[in-house]
Structure formats: C-alpha cells, structure tokens
Write the structure tokens for this entry.
Amino acid sequence: MTDPADMDAFLSEPRDLYRGRALAVIKPSTAAEVARVLALCNTQGVGVVPQGGNTGLVGGQTPDASGRQIVLSLQKLDRIRDVDPASDAMTLEAGVTLARAQEAAEAADRYFPLSLASEGSCTIGGNLATNAGGVHVLAYGAARDLALGLEVALADGRLLSTLGKLRKDNTGYNLTQLFIGSEGTLGVITAATLKLFPRPRSRAVAFLGLDSPDDALALLNFVKERAGPGLQAFEIMSRLGLELVLRHIPGARDPLAAPAPWYALLEIAGFTEGEAERVADLALAEALEAELVADATLAHSLDQAAALWRLRESMSEAQKREGGSIKHDISVPIERIPAFITEAGRRIAARFPQARPVPFGHMGDGNLHYNVSQPAGADKAAFLARWDEMNALVHGLVDAFEGSISAEHGIGRLKRELLAETKNPVALEVMRALKKTLDPNGVLNPGKLL
Amino acid sequence: MTDPADMDAFLSEPRDLYRGRALAVIKPSTAAEVARVLALCNTQGVGVVPQGGNTGLVGGQTPDASGRQIVLSLQKLDRIRDVDPASDAMTLEAGVTLARAQEAAEAADRYFPLSLASEGSCTIGGNLATNAGGVHVLAYGAARDLALGLEVALADGRLLSTLGKLRKDNTGYNLTQLFIGSEGTLGVITAATLKLFPRPRSRAVAFLGLDSPDDALALLNFVKERAGPGLQAFEIMSRLGLELVLRHIPGARDPLAAPAPWYALLEIAGFTEGEAERVADLALAEALEAELVADATLAHSLDQAAALWRLRESMSEAQKREGGSIKHDISVPIERIPAFITEAGRRIAARFPQARPVPFGHMGDGNLHYNVSQPAGADKAAFLARWDEMNALVHGLVDAFEGSISAEHGIGRLKRELLAETKNPVALEVMRALKKTLDPNGVLNPGKLL
C-alpha cells in the first residue's frame, strides 16, 4: 500500500503519541515473503518497521517522520500451523491475535495463559517482540517464558528457525530468547511454538481491603505459601484508584462495605473440582485471623469474578476520564514495593503539590503502573507539560531502588534516551555489539530501543 | 597451581573420557580477579577453560592436550551474597554448590527446585553455563528458567552485570539467557540471582506399573490435568531397567507385587496439609478405573518415597555394573516418546542383535536417557567399540522425530562434531557470529560447543 489514506492506520498508534510517514506499508503473507522484503531493504538501505496489532505503548511500531522507512505488517501471517495437546505445544504465525491463540488452546482443552488488555487485537509476534506481560506473569511468566521456539527473518533475508516442541534442548546458544523482547531490532519474528498448559478446573477471585502496602506484601507471601503455583494473579490498587473507577466506569460497584486505604485482587486456580475455592477460603480465613486483611469478598459466580476483575482492568480508562495522567511502567524487587510507594508519594507531594499518585498493578511481579493523576480541577495541559520532570523524579527513584524503568511495555522510541542514560554501560555495549552483528546495515526498526 | 600433582584432579573428568594438560590451574576469589585473568589471557591468546564442580558429562570442563590452556576454577567464588525471601530471590557466586544453594533457600523457608544427581559437588555457575536440567524441570523449568540475572566476566575483562531481583524488566536484549547454556564460550559466569519458590507442604510419590509407553503418555496427560503445576516429576523406566537396579543395587526392592513391562514414578506437591496425597489418591483411583495403570503404590512415609526415588536414581549405576552401556541424552516432542521407543528398539534389534535398550528418564519433559546395555555375557570392549555406530543410529532417529541430540547434558567436546552436522545451518551461522562478537580472539573454552 502506498496510498496515504490506506496507510494512515499503520502510521499512528493508539495513544497518538507518535505519528510517522512511510514509503509503503507492505503486507506479506508468508515467512519467505517477509525474508525477501528484508533482503531487498537490506541491500537498498531502507529502514523496516515491523508491526503486529499496532497496540504497543512505546512507539516501537510507528515509522519515523522521514518518509523513507517502510511498515512491514505481519497481519497476513495468521495461520495456526499446529496444535498438539499431547506435547503441550502449538505453532502459530506472528499475525495471529492473542485472543485467537487463547481460543486455539481452549479448543484443544488446554490453556494459554498470556492475557492482557489488548488481547483482541495484539498479535503473537508483537507479544514476543516486546516480551508482553499481563495479569498471569506471577504463575506462568511473561511471553518470553511461554515460547519454545521461533521462526525469524534476519536482516539479510536468511530465515532462522528454532521452532519445535522440545521442552529441553541444550544444543547451543539460546537464539530464541535473544530475539524475544528485541522489539524487531534484531530480526522479524514470523512464527512461534508456544507452550500449552492444563486448563484450570476451578478458579477463585477475591477482593480484599488492606490497611497498607506493607500488609499487601505480607498477604502476598502468606497466600503464596498456601496456594503455591496455584496463585495466578495478585494485583493492588489504592482507595483513590477504586474511587476513580467508581466515579467514571458505568456499572462499577464497591465490593466491600467500608472503604479501605488499599485493595488487593487475587486469583487462585485449582485443577480438581472445588480446589481453588477451598484454598482461597482457607487462606482468607487465616489472613483475616492474622489481621492481614481488613475485609474481603470472594466471588461466588463467574459474573462476580468478572466484575471484580473489571475494577482492576478499568484503572487506565478511569484515570483518563479523570484528566491528565503521567504514566510509568516500573518494577522493583517485590519486597521494596511498599517503601517505593511511600517514598515516591513523599517526593511527588513535595514537588507536585496536589498531584494524585494512583499506583496500581502487578504486585506479585514487583511491577507497578505508577501513574500520577493531575490535581483535581487543575489545568490538564499545564500538568502534562511537566511529564518529563515527573518521569525524572519517578525513574530516579526506580534507579535508587534497583528497579527497571520498563517492566513490561518495552523501550521503543518513548524510552530510548532514558535507556541510554540508565542502563548498565557494559550491557549497553554488548547490546550494541549484538545489534551490529545481526543488523550491520541498521535497517531493522531503526531508532527504536538503541 | 602449576604442579602436575596439584593440577591432576582438574585435568580429567568423572567418566575419564577426557584428560588434558594445562599451563596452570587458576583459582580466583572474586569476580574482579576472574575478569583480570580473562583480560590477560585475551591479550596473550591463552585459552581459558572455566570449571565449576567438574561434574559435566560432555568434556566441556576439561582442557585439551596441548598444555597451552589454563583451567579457571570458580570454586573459590563461593559466597552467598544475599537471600531475600520476600522478593523470592537469592544471589550466589558461581562456585556455590547446588546443595548449598538448596540449603540457603530452605534456611529462608523457601524452595530452590533445581535437583540433579551431582548436586553435592556441581556448582551454580556450572549449572547455568550448561543449563542443567534434572528431575523437577516439568514443574519449574531448567536452570535457565530459574535465573533472574547474572554477573559475567567477558573475554576482554569487562564485567557485565544483569544481577537483580526483578521479575519483570523489558529494558533491552536478554543478555542473561544468551550466556546461560553457552558452556563458557561467550563469557564466564561469576554470580547469579536465582528465583525462590514457596516450599511444598506435602508431597506424594507414586510408583506405577504400566503396560506400555503409550499408557505412560496417556497417564502423564491424565495426571497433568488433575494436578496442574503440582505435578513435579514424571519419570519412566522399563522392566529391564528395574531388573538391573534390583540385581545390582543393594537394598533395592520391587515395590509392586507383579512385574509390569513399564513403570512410571511421579511426584505431586501440595501447599496445604494433605493436599498432595488427596490429589494423588484421586488421580490414581481414576487412572486405575480408566485402566491406564496396571498396579500402583503410593509412598506413605518419607523413607518409602526416598526408596522409590532411589530406584530411578540408581539407573545409571545399575547399568554400569551390568557391563558396557552406550548412552544418549535425547529429547523429542512428548507425544512422540512412545513411537520413538518402539522405532529405536526395532532398529537396534536389527543392527545390534541381543543389545538391550534401557530407556529411562524425564518423560514429562520429552527427555529420555536412551541408553543401550551390552548383550548379556558378551564382550564389553567389543560392544563399546561400536559406540559411534550406535550413536549414529539413535541420533539419526532423533533427527527424524524432530528431537534434540542433547536434551540436558550440553555439547562440550563430546557432541561438537555432531552439533555441526545436525544443527539448523542458519542457527549455526548465527551462533558463530555471536561467538566472534563476544570472543573475537577465541580464548573462551576453545574447541567446546562450536
């Protein structure tokens, strides 16, 4: 496609932070075609921007403003090549959406646990290129941990395959993991073999009122010890976060009788009838008795469970409707989450009086979406104009806490300069050397990540 | 050390397949010292052979015969730097033995699941350099899956650190996974941050008599569905394997009343009181009713459980005492294990009449130690003289089954030529390019892996 109107949807991204131009949008149908496009661009020195479902949050999938790059859409590589439940593996092409991947697993009576807000449109190739996280990392790991092998088109047009259903294979360097999370800068993923898991037969979802992040940490460890790998998700949000959801999201209801300063949402899976409920009942009763929990409710139907999850999943939308929100996707060692919340709140209060931190997210993984909403009733533009200053404050603290400035969203264009400033210098040198080895002409997603 | 008598223990390996010479054995005490040794060797062009507990099975840790390499022993890097149960992470130096790592976790009321026969002497650095597997890969993954970060001395003496307790960190290429399993050919691991897990509160170990590998596969899926991630191990062995153990291992007793053609040993963990036994009881009762299992016994004490595990863990020793045994460490897609056993047996019977295949191992991971014992009473040396011919037969079949010629033991010197013949050519090219980038002078474990 070269017509501007046809290309338009491929040249901007959901939050409209980035908008670019392109020579063309190319939509190959096979891995061999992808490889040929790369070979041609490599010899001609044309930058290639791979794109899946175009749901990325850091601008990794958007071309620059030069108009001299091409967008390589993987959407037509959408075949499910193989689903093998007895080997617990399926092989899918890069353009298969995450939702279709989940359905393919379910149709074979298996479970594919990767789950995130954009699952209806994001694609497996993009999930792997960015090492997507989501709500079940605690039990199953991120996208990285769910891949057994890849098919990758290299910059010069060679096609590398590590596809295969093997759970163990110690024949050399792990090339699979090198490409996962490299954001299309080392090669273009065209297919992947993914792990399948037994389907949970029971699920318990609980929403708990807590006095503090310290209690959330204690509760997390308490539940881990009792549920083991059955603990699928452990999310937290503050009272302010819940209030924003109750204010802005139609149908949202406070599940607890009295307000609490903090909340945890947890999900436990079981593999025999009633097991999840039994474990959840036991853990909650003991947690209440140990006074780790102020109040709690356990969903007694799938609808109730979905309603509890909706409170958590509506956080971004509710913040958006409340006005300006400055975002951070950070992680720290799990044990340091409470201290981080305290210290970040203190520093923000000093520098941004009336700004309202609304931290929430995957506490079980040490990952907070540490977002800060504008002062109530204040000017949105004036608040957002201080985005970089707020970022600098929060990311500086992340560094002091030995954390990461991008827990699950990646680097893309948004954090490229920040990465160069904060990453271990030797690690950066090694990354640059690897980039040069695999993409000597610099045609793969130029200007992203590095 | 330069004295031949002092160096001797570092120049050969457990099975005495390889024996080398060395300029010196160097035992640094810190990562900085390791880095300085590498920098010096790099400028002088001296090959460096890293060595941990010297328990590797493929000759990766042994210097060549030239006498111009040095052995770099990591044994003195044996500090436990940090154990943080609330973050479920611990940081250990490379020379800490696996058994000490397990104990450090246990002392903090956590579980470190990596477990293998040589755990008393093998080291964390070696475990990671070779991506060690063992008996709990099914539930927790291999060494690769247990690492959060590494400290690595690079060929030119730079020290790279990805150490840290973060469960999620999407800031660039995954350098950690690149070094794991690279067998000391890309850098020398000096420390690692490892994941900790909740300690199981109950364990059930069962030993089951089965009619066939097909029934073992059906049983594996049956138990997976009922135990989910609680299934910690699923091992198989043949009747002949059990008979060799009963014949050669003092104190070994057949746990079932009547012989069965095949056996499975399975372990289920639970995180509440009695949970493992409840799940195991239920699964076994249903499996007996579904006629997947001919007979079964469930351990009712830790001693009984240990006795069942000893049957499985004595397999190598029993084979050794029975005479010559030609070994293979292979994996295929789990679903194809039964067909592989049938076809391999057929081909061996045709070419090696009276040779006795004794396949056993980690069926849950698709990983068999497909060993073949000499014909009863025949000449051991004459049988072992056909090692390469047997390997070619078995590995050819592995290739036809889309399997791996090294599931968990690695490549080292033993399988270097085989790797060059069997690996995907593009993957080999990429591996060589990475090697050249990170070790341009070729001083890191020369002649191993590539």
Remarks:
- The longest strand of chain B covers residues 202-210.
- Chain B has a mean pLDDT of 96.
- DSSP finds 16 helices and 18 strands in chain B.
